[in-house]
Each structure stands twice: as structure tokens, then as C-alpha cells.
User: What shape does this take?
Amino acid sequence: MIQRVDVKYLKKPEEVGLENPVMIEGLPGIGHVGKLVADHLVKMLDVEKVVELYSHHFPPQVMVGENGVVKLPKNEVYAYKGDNSPDLLILVGDYQSISNEGHYELANAYLKIAKDFKVSRIYTLGGYGIGKLIEEPYVIGAVNDESLIDVLRDAGVKFENGEPAGGIIGAAGLIIGLAMLENIPSACLMGTTSGYMVDPKSAKAVLEVLMRLLNLEVSVEDLEERAKEMERLIAQIKEMQEAQIPQFKSDDDLRYFR
Amino acid sequence: MIQRVDVKYLKKPEEVGLENPVMIEGLPGIGHVGKLVADHLVKMLDVEKVVELYSHHFPPQVMVGENGVVKLPKNEVYAYKGDNSPDLLILVGDYQSISNEGHYELANAYLKIAKDFKVSRIYTLGGYGIGKLIEEPYVIGAVNDESLIDVLRDAGVKFENGEPAGGIIGAAGLIIGLAMLENIPSACLMGTTSGYMVDPKSAKAVLEVLMRLLNLEVSVEDLEERAKEMERLIAQIKEMQEAQIPQFKSDDDLRYFR
Amino acid sequence: MIQRVDVKYLKKPEEVGLENPVMIEGLPGIGHVGKLVADHLVKMLDVEKVVELYSHHFPPQVMVGENGVVKLPKNEVYAYKGDNSPDLLILVGDYQSISNEGHYELANAYLKIAKDFKVSRIYTLGGYGIGKLIEEPYVIGAVNDESLIDVLRDAGVKFENGEPAGGIIGAAGLIIGLAMLENIPSACLMGTTSGYMVDPKSAKAVLEVLMRLLNLEVSVEDLEERAKEMERLIAQIKEMQEAQIPQFKSDDDLRYFR
Amino acid sequence: MIQRVDVKYLKKPEEVGLENPVMIEGLPGIGHVGKLVADHLVKMLDVEKVVELYSHHFPPQVMVGENGVVKLPKNEVYAYKGDNSPDLLILVGDYQSISNEGHYELANAYLKIAKDFKVSRIYTLGGYGIGKLIEEPYVIGAVNDESLIDVLRDAGVKFENGEPAGGIIGAAGLIIGLAMLENIPSACLMGTTSGYMVDPKSAKAVLEVLMRLLNLEVSVEDLEERAKEMERLIAQIKEMQEAQIPQFKSDDDLRYFR
Assistant: This one.
């Protein structure tokens, strides 16, 4: 049985032993940019799962894995002990809330986890949809503490006059908004993206900023490769459109659209 | 007055005296496949009603019976003491939740009942809509414990690479997902079906698998008969479509579409 | 400040001193049939307001009266001490719940009031929309206790094989459904109506049945007059349609459509 | 972390030391009339912020300021100690509730604040959309206490036979409705407006009434200037429509439409 917002600690924060870690959030959203980056970190770093989070605010269903085993919608937090970089607490997962109120309840839970682990800073990751294909994605920022702006600028983040004009919707925005009330200096890093498809190239841009901010090194090869596949796919689509020859891509090529 | 989720025990689990029963869930859903099977079991076996469940998550209305007496939306649990088969706890009913959160709250309640009765395994039943008429329906499975896969395969269940790709929505999925957290090995059995109409033929396929799994014998005659009526009806519809002669079926023939 | 469901007793049930009253419910619904009847009773009988009910499940707004004074959405219960008839508890009001769950929460509150006043029977009133204009409206019934059927038949109520087939939605249905769990024999009386407009003629049919059931006499003149105005209006509309001359009715004539 | 409805007092009411203040509410709504007036008062008067209010009923997002710093959706209450006018408590903010139930929960919170500060009267401000451009906006009123009508009439407020016919939706209506239950005499002042755009001219009309009611003087120059800009803009739009020459306005001119 799971509670409305159900945070299950697999290990107590004091047992995990992180020192004032930096929290990274990368949940599904525009272009899946944040999710791609955070999932990539979990895959590349030597992490340990410390929290599982279930909620009535996730879709009422299970997913079925390749092996026929089902999986409840859940989000997860991974711990990483840094060498040259600060310790990290990485929040990843399948879904954001499907209700408005749920967004607030889940963001509260994420902040509670941050506080339990004595997080010193939070970076939330996302995409910034601009409605057209973009050759060279870059990263724009928003902060909950003006003193962070210079730090981010030095790492290559742009600040553009109140952009995004529509605000930052969902977990990436609410988390740094709530963190302001808790005095945790935090920023949202948004990779520019078309908004039409999963965008590993934008994710790579965000990851590179994040590595500079964290003094962290991870291979970006995997994202680069997926970005290249993506470009080939886009090129093919353009060709098809020009030739007006209907032609269907294999399931494999299309997985980026999911 | 009824609570948000209101589980009324007609008899205490220890009085019912089932021994580590297997729970069967068959609520309304795609092709009403699960409901047809579970209702059929309740009708054919010598069962005893042990739980009634009301909820604010059901539609706010009553149904009116043939005799003019109203009926609140409710789900029910029946107990069956097995001879050669294990004892059973069969969950049937009129509705699933009409809200997202309600699905979770109701699934929690079903799991609570399962635990109160010390259920040893759960089979949830449903349909798997494939969008076209199907001559020979078969049964695909999903489990919450990999060790169940061989058991199910031996009973004729197919496992198809992460199908259903869209996941399993509602009670049939959530129950086995939540059962995983409670360490109750469970599976979802889905009869392939068009998804366009009530499908007793698919239900029969699911029932046959279930009988093998439970070492249980019940007549399938009733489902076969309804399947035949259904086939006649489909044949007539096809004919009508080909002849393009508008012709209306009697109310009786159309009851399958409800 | 008002609670989610806020029942304000103006007088304690024991002070009101009704003896096992019959509860009458007439809230807005199909053709406003139930509301017309219950409002008419409150107007014609010598009643006393005993309960006001506010709720977050009503629309978040106030209405503005002719005098410029606002009015919160609320329902009300009136007490009537009978002479030859039983005592009555009449539930009237502006709205039903605007959420699904709210319907259940409000119905619970109505039942609580019924129990506080030791209600012996409940009649809920409504319309039964049949989709076409109807010359001679009649009353169909649904009960929560089979023994009531003969009583109702004697008063002129018809029972039609499981009608309404779609069930009875909202307060009129839920109240008698919940009353079944509390062992209060109850019935829903539905006047047949087109479903397209407010229908005082159907209301009159329901009122006449109710008067026979309660051994109560009230003038029906007011409903008859409104029914006649309505007929004139319908006649005019038909004429206009036939003549195909666009012509607009005064505000006064159209008030029935609200 | 913020509660479902989270009222954060920056200073205790007894420390603020207002004497039976008048509460003014001006939240976003039709033509943003109420918001324009209340924001103007906060800007022009020597006020002190005393309450911040966050809620799960606001949109789940943050806004991004010109400086790149995010802002959680919140409403605020400002205190003003009057000279010749009564003390004021001014409720302003970014949003109303985005759910029906939330409107009631927030209105309850506003009333709680009013009672904590021993408010003697409440004026809620809004627009009354009439669907066409209006040369000379005027102010219509609705009250929760008939004795206020003469006071308002003397200040230039009109009362029009049960207008607005559709009631007053949201905070402006609910607050005075709930205040009636708390015996706080209150009125809603609505500036007539087209309903199509932000309307500083209508706001000026409301402000002038309010100044008379409160014996308060503030410059209306700012609203007049914005009203003139608006009129130029409308004139330009009309010209463009007549000339049918597509022509785009600068961002600056269009800010009124937001």
C-alpha cells in the first residue's frame, strides 16, 4: 500500500554519509532534456539508490518491462560521493504529477528529502521550448538567489530578461521556488530545444554546463551518439517531406519521439 | 453514510476460514474480459459474499434493477473453499474509480483485503485491446515476480517483449504493482480482444488458462454460448455493412455492446 | 468561514419536535421537476427553516438578489408539522455538487440530517427526461425497499422494468441508495419530462402523487398556471418554427428556460 | 514547504496596530480592474507587507523576474495606517484559485486574516464585463448588508436590479458572501468594462468611488496615463482594422493585453 505521497528511504541519510550534497533534479519535461541529463549521470557515475517515491499523483497504471515484469510509476533518488566534485543527490523518475495540487505535494516531498540530506544547493534541469529546430542549443538559467547569477554565467549560462516569459512549470520551477523559502540557493538550467522531440543535443549542452558547475567529469559520448542518430533522423524526415514519398521508419529510429 | 473508501466486512476473515487463498480480480475494463471471467466464477462456484466495498470514487448515482429497486455502485468480494484447487477470493463489481487518485486508494483497499485474508497469490484479469477482430484470442501475461513466468507459460500464457507497451491501466495493473511492495507474487492475465465490444470468447480463453493455473474445473458453456451469439451478431453486422441495408437489431442482440 | 460540507442547525432537532417525519428532497435537476415541487411545498405550507447547508462543492460564487444583496450558494431544510399528514422535512436549494466526490459527501450530510430528525421515510423527487415533448406527464418510481412498490402503485406511480436505464444520477439517487444502508425505506419519484426545459406540468404530476402518498392537501394552482404559460410559450415557438419568422420573446416569457 | 493554504504572518496583527481597518481585495479578474486598483493603492500609499499567502491551489509554477530570479505564485496583504481615512488592509496578488474547492479554501483564509486584524468592513473590487467597448465606465455594487446600499449610492455606485445576473464568481464574491456569515458588512465594487482587455479607465472609476468611500486621496495620474495609452492603442487597432493593413505593435504597447 502506498500513501498519497510515499517517500521510502532505503537507507537513512546519516548512513549514506553525504556532505552537504548538491541536489540535481531531472524529471520528464520539455524535450526530456532534464531527464536525459539526470539519467545519464545515474548511469555513468558510481551511485547508490537511497530513496524511492511513489504517489497517488502519478498515473494509475504499471509499465511492463521487456522481461514481462511490471513496474509501478516511481521516482528515485541516487547518492553519489564526489572526488573532486561535491557529493550529489540525483532525483530521477518516470513521471511528474498528473494533478495541479500533486505538483505542490511532490515538490514539498523533494524539499523534505533535500533537507534530510542537508543539501547545500539544488540544480533543477529542463528544456526551454522555442518552437523551431535549433542548431546550437545553449543553456538559460533562472535562480532563487541573485548571488548565483555570476556563478552560472561563468559556467556559460545565459540570462535573458525574464525568460521564460511563461514561467517554469512543474517540478523544475516549484523546487527552486520552495527552496527559496528554505534558504537553499538553487537554480534551474534549461537547454533550448524545439519542444517537438526528445533532444539529446540540448541535454549535452546542459550536461556540459553542469560539469563545469560541479567540477565533474563524465563522458558525454552516449548523449553525442544519440544526438547524431537524432540528426540523421531529422535529415531523413526533411528529405521525405521534400520528396513527398511516404516512408516509415523502423521502431528503433522512432524511439526518440517517445 | 459511506466513507471515501468504505470496506464493509460481512464476516471476519478468520471466520471465513480460507487457507492462503488466491485472489482473482475481474472488474470492468477492455472488452469486459476480466469482469466476464470473475462474474462467471462467482456464478458457477459455491461462493459466499464476504466483503462489500463502496466509494466516493464510484459514479455518484444508483442503478435501477428490473424490480424497481435501486443499487448503489459497489464492488464485492466472494470466498470459495477449494476442493482440488486452492481457496479463492474473487473481487468483482460494477465500476473502477472515476478519478486518478481514486484508483490508488481503491487498489490500496483491495491489497488490505488481500492481506487480511493472507492471500498467497493474486491473478488480475483483463483484456488487451489490439484494435481489430481476432479469430483465436490468446492470453498474454505480466508478472510482479519473474519466477511466475514459467508457471504461466506452462498454462499457455504468452509473454511478448514488454507488451502491453502502454502499460496496464487501472485496478488490474495497480493491484499487482502494489502487491510487489507487499511481496505477494501476482500476475495479470490479459485476453487479446478487439477492444470494440464485450468479448466472451476472449474471456473463455482467460478462464481456460486460469483453470489450468488453479487446477479448477468449471463449465465454460455459458461463455461459449455468449461467444456464439456474439459471432452471429458480428456476422450480421458485416452482412449489413456489405449490403448497405440499414436494419436494426433487437435490444436483446445488442446487449453485448453495453 | 465554511467547512467542506457545513451543516448549520438553526434549531436542534429535539427542539423542532417533529415525529418521525418524512423527508422530501427536491434539488435542481432534469426539468427542475423536483425543485419545483419542493419549493412549492415550502411556499404553500407553514414551514420553519431548521438547517442551512453550505459546501465547497457548490460553485465558488455568490448570486445577487433584486435588492443588490448577495447570497452564498446554499441548501436549506424546512420543517412542517402535519395535521392529517405526517410531519415533513423538506430539503431544497440552489445547487447540487459540482464534483463527483462532493455528491457523495453531500448525500452523507443529507442522511445525517435525516437520522438526526429520526426520519421514517424519504421521497426524493426528480425528472425523467425522455427527449420529446410529452402531453400527459406521469410519474415513475424507484425504491430502496421492495415493500414500498405497492404503496407507490396505489398512489399512481408506474414501475417500468429497470427504468431509468441509465440509473438515477446525483442527490435523488444517492440519497435513497445511502438510505438503504441505514434501513430507511425510501423512494425516488420521477416525473416524465422532455428534459429540454423547466417543466411545471410534470412537477404537478409529481406533486399529486406526493399528496396522495402523504395524505396532504396543497393548492396546485400556481404550478398549473406556470404550466399553462409554458404551453402558450411552446405553442408560440412551434408557430414561429412553422412560419419560419424569426421573432423574439420578451424576457419574461423566457424565464422558464433558465 | 508550503501547506495547502499557507498563510505566513510577517508581523502579528497586534504588532501592526491597525484599528478596525477596512479590507480592500483586488485580485486578478475581469479586465484586471480590481487588481489595477489594489496594486495602485499599494504603490501610492505608505504600506507595510504583513502577510504572504501561498497555496497548492495556485498554478504549479514559478514566474521569472527581469533579474532572472524566480517568484512563487503568492498573494500578499499590506497594512496602511490612515490619516483622515480609516486604516486599510489591502489584499493583492498574482492568482486566484485554479480549482473550485480552492476558491472556498482561500476565501476562508482571507476571512481568517480579516478577523485576526478585526476588520470592520470589506470592499472587494472587480470588473463587470458587458461585452462591448465602453466610453464612460461606471461602478455597480453588490452588498452583503442592505444598510450599505445608501452609503455606496452616495459615493456614486449604481445598483441595477440583480446585476450581475450571472452572480459574482471567485474571491470578490465569495469573500463578501462569507463575511455575511461573520457579520462583517461588505460590498463588491465592479467597474463596467468590455471584458476583452486590461482596463485602467474602469479601474480609475472604481478608485474614485473607493476614495470617496474611504475619505482617501491618492493620485490617479498613473491610471489615467495607462488609460490614455490604452485608448491610443484601441484607436490604432480600429484604424488598422479599417485599413485592413496588417501591422504589428511593439511589445510595449501590447503589454496591456496580458
